[in-house]
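Question (not urgent): is this output format expected?
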Amino acid sequence: MLTTIFNSLLLHLHTRSQLAAVWVTTSSSPSPYEVLNDSLRKYDALRLKYIRAYIDCNKGTEQGRRDIETLLSWTMTSNQDLAGFYIASALLRGGDPGKHAKQSRLTSDGFIAKVKHACSSAMTEMILRDLAVWKRKNGIDNDEKKKLMVYFKLAYRLHLNLNASSKEVAEYVSKKNRSLAEVEAFCKCYLSIQSGYRISSINLSGMDSNALYSILEGALAKGKQMMQEAKVKASKKKDKTALPPSRKETQPSMAEIEKQS
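Got this back:
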């Protein structure tokens, strides 16, 4: 009798569409892993809140910008958080993703990635704010030209911290149809310098990826050239400050020779 009922049930299931339901049973108390993960997320959220407050308090002054840049350099050399490591490893479909300082910020996530994003966003906000002020003026003076050069070098370093090629960045911006703050600051500083210190008002949102790629490549070449020139200049300055040894140090006097003999 039971066999007949079972066979008829199988026949019914094979001949008609069916709905499936899944029941998941969990224990009344969370596992140690869940407790640890929940505690870690709360801790990261709390310290990220205070770090962002610190950044917001410092992005109004030049000294504050330098303090934020110092915080970013500390973050780049710190150990990666577990959440960020798991995400980076998952994107590689397993394996060690390596140091977070070399991972692409276009896809990274986690506590360290959010701190880097907060620092970078604050500094690019300062750059874009001053560019907007200068744009409303008829021209910029010599001090502002020097500051623009400083901003370009800073934007160059921030762009390099994205750890992505020009093609990857251009395709990312084109696909998302919105500009990255680091890319916008970098391109605007570059185009302003190239146009004879006339502040650029270019809008990168919706720009063709090939056009943006060309701008980025030109800006990177300009930034690399300026960094090399600054390095050579610093090396020459260091050589000038190093005093050559005096004759008295290189050649002993006759009195010293007689004394030694």
